[in-house]
Amino acid sequence: MDFLEKIRPHLLSDDFFVQEFVMHALQEYPNVPPEWTELLLREAIDSKEKELVILANIDKFTFTDGAVALLAEGYRSAAKDRKHLFARLIANLDPELILEHRSTLAGILTPKAFELNEFLLNGGEEELWEEYGSVLAAMERDENFQQDLYTKAKRLAITLVK
Question: Which DSSP letter does residue 109 get?
């Protein structure tokens, strides 16, 4: 019996501490099945008590078309103080998924975010390197940490590595 077979029965545990343990165990695991992402997103939407622990630990999971739809549903139904949990996951989706689901994500992501994802997907290598350099220079000049610049640099670096 492998790791996933052992942990599967506890994935949607009613015991908060057991589910929290499972989520932490899966957080860095590289082969979480995509259907588990959808199961957990449905659980986060349906159970507000589990919302934070689930959404805070699925960043590195595989997101499918169904997961994108669930993220949009979750964002729209979330309390105002919890929308950022869904928005963070949506903003970090692969550019292909974001652009494929542009109409679903309209109103959640800004036009500027869609432009960035188009650039990440369609920009040439030299253009990507130039933008990466300018973002790093902007981060160096700024005395305060700017999350949006950091996120943009990170997304550019990921795209350049691919």
Answer: B
